[in-house]
Design a protein that fits this description.
The complex is a heterodimer of chains A (315) and B (285). With 315 residues, chain A is an alpha/beta fold. Chain A contains twelve helices and 13 strands. A six-stranded mixed sheet of chain A has the order 6-7-8-3-9-10, sandwiched between helices. In chain A, strands 2-1-4-5 form a four-stranded antiparallel sheet. The longest helix of chain A has 16 residues. In chain B, helix 2 crosses helix 10 and helix 11 packs across helix 12. With 285 residues, chain B is mostly helical. The chains are: A alpha/beta (315), B mainly alpha (285). Chains A and B meet through strand 6 of A and helix 8 and helix 9 of B.
Chain lengths: 315, 285
């Protein structure tokens, strides 16, 4: 079962012994190698995608709609089979990794039937199904873990509510609690910040950070570019292929983002003298795809003439 | 008093009651799942789609039930496949597949006149059911009910959130095929006893009624099966006094219960909703 050994893993594990309930036993990793996905209608959604992720990581998956983000998720979950290349999860094939409960999934709100007759605690209990026997009968341990998960996301008071009766932020937290109860070392989150209030966003980010320090591996598809540098240490940029992948500081740059979003983003550039009356020649660039804008300060050479013109127009 | 017990003195009545109870309960179990996915009319579709199977079975000389089951399964998988491959909505997919099958069936019957009366398929005959047929129905219903009971939670997760079902190691495709196979088998079993019309009601109404009464799936299943079985048994019993029309009585009972739930359900009923609205208006400034 433990396909890899190696110094990296043993060190991480030792550190983890101390941390409490989130402890990850099996050093998680995702290896996507040369993955090409073509749908039955002939559309190639993803071509030669390659990246690697390891334990203790929050990785943002960033790209425009139709860039292949969800196809990548589907490939990691085994919903689509690549026609070329392969996906390995903790050194295992996708199917056997799923059988061992290594991956949890937090769906996009649009993908959930909110009229389904289930209560909040029923949904969280579904996270435990993979740990139960053939008949899926909950043990006391399962019930305790559900209670702990609900408590961690602050939803204990709502446990008897039907899921459709919750606010956008509460709905997200329920599915996050399900992933916690599932105790999988790898968690995939699909647009966790869409339709969510600021408080919930902060709660989610804090929780993800806790899980990271416990050795979990999280892959977060998000439109919320502004929050990416706040909590993601890795970024994978996609546009029909993986444009760039690596540490946030290296990958999440203005030029890379412009490549990934080519003209799709709202793009504000506030420059030099249009902004202030001094010799500071840096400019402010605002890129936004969603609620929170991403701001670059001073990475672009200021075109003084343009700024002058802007100033003249203003007067 | 003695008159009320009269139906129990007739062997065929007792048989009719418990066979329809079992069939009604099993169909109600299936209805709970179908209703949640917007597939309620699939029962309708399957009930009509088996006609070419019956006609074909007659032509090549195999048991009708086998032909019916095969055609039903083919139709169910056909619908599922078309749904997967296209962006068409469920109702269009169901409509296309079931009309094609039904038309093919009518065509086959008109070209090779059979001894099978299409009327008897549509209406069924619970009171005249032979012991042999009854046994067949009971076996199908009991096996289906057992499998459904064991797999009810896996099926629920699959219907609720397929992606999550995969992450806990389930195979959603296999589970769906299992579900539709059982649906086809039960439709065939129910057709022999209660006829196509009633099958349609039996795989829709109990689940829809239970949906109005609870927000928990396990309870919904129990209520649905309870309603399905009870209305079937009581319906068969009452039909003794009304002289025939068993299917009609069962469906009427189910409709009455649905109406009661529609009006009086504690949370989702019409009156409760109105009370809530009034309350909201009062508390709003």
């Amino acid at each position: 079962m433990n396909a890899h050994d190696g110094s990296h893993k043993s060190i991480t594990q030792e550190n983890l012994q101390k941390s409490a309930s989130d402890e990850v036993n099996n050093s998680p990793s995702i290896a996507v190698r040369d993955v090409t996905v073509t749908y039955p209608n002939g559309h190639t959604a993803l071509k030669d995608a390659t990246f690697n992720l390891h334990a203790g990581t929050i990785c943002a998956l960033v790209g425009i709609n139709g860039s292949g983000k969800s196809t990548l998720f589907k490939a990691i979950m085994g919903f689509v089979k690549p026609i070329k290349g392969d996906v390995q999860i903790s050194g295992l094939t996708v199917d056997s990794a799923l059988k061992q409960n290594l991956v949890a999934y937090v769906p996009q709100s649009e993908d959930v039937d909110w009229n389904f007759p289930v209560l909040v605690e029923d949904v969280v209990m579904m996270g435990r199904y993979g740990h139960m026997g053939f008949l899926r009968r909950a043990s006391q341990e399962d019930r305790n873990k559900v209670a702990v998960a609900l408590d961690r996301v602050g939803m204990t008071d709502y446990r008897q509510r039907q899921i459709g009766e919750l606010s956008g932020g509460q709905k997200k937290r329920v599915f996050l609690a399900r992933a916690l109860a599932q105790e999988s070392p790898i968690i995939l989150l699909d647009e966790p910040f869409t339709g969510v209030d600021v408080k919930t966003e902060a709660t989610i980010i804090e929780l993800l950070r806790d899980l990271r320090s416990a050795g979990h591996l999280m892959l977060v598809a998000t439109h919320n570019l502004g929050s990416v540098p706040d909590f993601c240490d890795q970024v994978v940029l996609v546009n029909r292929t993986v444009l760039a992948a690596g540490a946030t500081a290296d990958v999440f740059t203005q030029s890379n983002l412009e490549r990934a979003f080519g003209g799709v983003l709202r793009h504000f550039k506030l420059e030099g003298r249009a902004l202030h009356n001094d010799d500071d020649s840096r400019s402010v660039t605002v890129l936004t795809d969603d609620e929170r804008a991403l701001v670059f300060y001073g990475e672009v050479k200021v075109d003084v003439q343009d700024a002058d013109e802007a100033e003249t127009k203003d007067h | 008093m003695i008159e009320l017990l009269a139906p129990f003195e007739y062997n065929y009545m007792v048989k009719a009651m418990w066979v329809s109870g079992l069939v009604g309960g099993t169909c109600a179990f299936l209805s709970a799942y179908l209703m949640l996915k917007g597939w309620s009319l699939m029962g309708d579709a399957l009930a009509h789609a088996i006609v070419p199977g019956v006609a074909g079975a007659y032509i090549i000389g195999i048991p009708f039930a086998a032909g019916a089951f095969f055609a039903g399964l083919l139709a169910a998988l056909g619908m599922w496949f078309v749904r997967q491959q296209t962006k068409l909505r469920e109702d269009a997919v169901i409509g296309i597949v079931f009309t094609s099958f039904f038309a093919l069936g009518l065509l086959m019957v008109s070209i090779y006149p059979t001894a099978v009366n299409v009327q008897s398929i549509v209406l069924g005959n619970i009171l005249g059911i032979s012991d042999e047929d009854a046994m067949q129905v009971v076996i199908i219903a009991a096996v289906s009910l057992a499998i459904l009971t064991l797999k009810r939670k896996d099926l629920m997760v699959t219907f609720f959130d397929e992606a999550h079902a995969r992450t806990i190691g389930l195979n959603p495709t296999a589970l769906k095929i299992l579900f539709f196979t059982l649906l086809s088998a039960c439709t065939v079993a129910a057709l022999q006893t209660v006829g196509a019309c009633l099958v349609i009601a039996m795989v829709v109404t109990p689940g829809a009624t239970a949906y109005l009464l609870t927000d928990r799936f396990e309870k919904l299943l129990a209520l649905s099966v309870g309603i399905g079985a009870a209305t079937s048994i009581i319906g068969a019993y009452i039909s003794f006094f009304l002289d025939g029309a068993t299917g009609g009585v069962i469906v009427t009972l189910q409709t009455l219960i649905f109406l009661a739930a529609f009006l009086l359900a504690p949370k989702h009923g019409m009156l409760a909703q109105r009370r809530l609205r009034v309350k909201a208006e009062v508390s709003a400034p």
